[in-house]
Amino acid sequence: MRVKKDNAVGMIDPSLLLRPEKVYDGKPVEAFRDYSMDDNDPIRERVRRTYYTMHTNMTVDFVKSKMDHWLKFNHFKLTVKDALIKLNELVDESDPDTDLPNIVHAFQTAERIRHDYPDDDWFHLTGLIHDLGKVMAFYGEPQWCVVGDTFPVGCKWGKSIVYGDDSFKDNPDTYNPKYNTECGMYEPNCGIENLMMSWGHDEYLYRVLVHNKSTLPKEALYMIRYHSFYPWHAGGDYSHLITDKDSYIKEAVLKFNQYDLYTKSAGVPDIEALWPYYEGLIEKYIPGVLEW
């Protein structure tokens, strides 16, 4: 992570820039599938370094330590609106619109959803807040621990995880017999909600919303918690740990992700004009000052 001028934090979110899965063939952003290594391409090199660092450090013990640290919810207090405004300082270097802060992507996503699902106000708000967990970046977390694809720890790494086994060669759990089998520490078909996911902004925001008693429907919480779990919902991995009931979660995530990945609007929304509508939704579903 590096600090940009005017106190903006420059971050790279590989989940939004490069997608290797076949399911994204023919989509508008062709670079999604380009994970080739090129030392002369600064974007590809940053993405590679981000994932290699993540995959080296993301062990069961590491995730437990992050859960112990963050899930006390004693780090700061902010309203949802204040947290969104803080994202104005966050510039996602993985987005082709490199000068646009995260809050613009948030409103673009929300407005596209609102256009297609005008009666589902909870869905509009989900699009607006889905990246709010990235506020961890302002409180000492390195970018590889905030952004990027997620995956379960405590079992064999999925075949479709970007950069594959080579990126996990320095992760001690790779060689731990408790964790390196197909099921590892889990029972077969234990269900997605019983998996310990790699730590990042998805899991953190989900936990914040539950802790603060948000009234968003379960479908919204699933969208937030698993939208970066590409090795499952796009790569097809981990079917031996999933139940039939989890198909509902997958449908929700895929419904949301088309707006997260492909909201590439040429125009910047009039955020000030939109605030009153979304403030009403915040008051309806996630009111007051939240514990983070």
Helix content: 40-55%
State which percent range the strand residues make up: under 5%
Low-confidence stretches: 1-8, 24-33, 92-98
- Total DSSP helices: 11
What number is the mean pLDDT?
A: 86
**Largest sheet, order of strands side by side?**
1-2-4
Q: Give the SSE string.
A: EEHHHEHEHHHHHHHE
CA-based shape: globular
The whole-angstrom Rg is 18 Å
Oligomeric composition of the shown chains: single chain
Q: What is the count of β-strands?
A: 5
Instruction: Characterize the largest beta sheet: strand count, sense, and whether it forms a barrel.
Output: 3 strands, mixed
Intertermini distance: 21 Å
- SS-based class: mainly alpha
Description of the molecule:
This protein has 292 residues and is mainly alpha-helical. It contains eleven helices and five strands, in the order ββαααβαβαααααααβ. The strands form two sheets. It has a three-stranded mixed β-sheet with strand order 1-2-4, with no helix packed on it. The chain has a two-stranded antiparallel ribbon with strand order 3-5. Strand 1 and strand 2 (9-11) form a beta hairpin. The longest helix is centred in the C-terminal third of the chain and has 17 residues, at 246-262. The chain is globular. The model is unreliable at 1-8, 24-33 and 92-98 (pLDDT under 50).
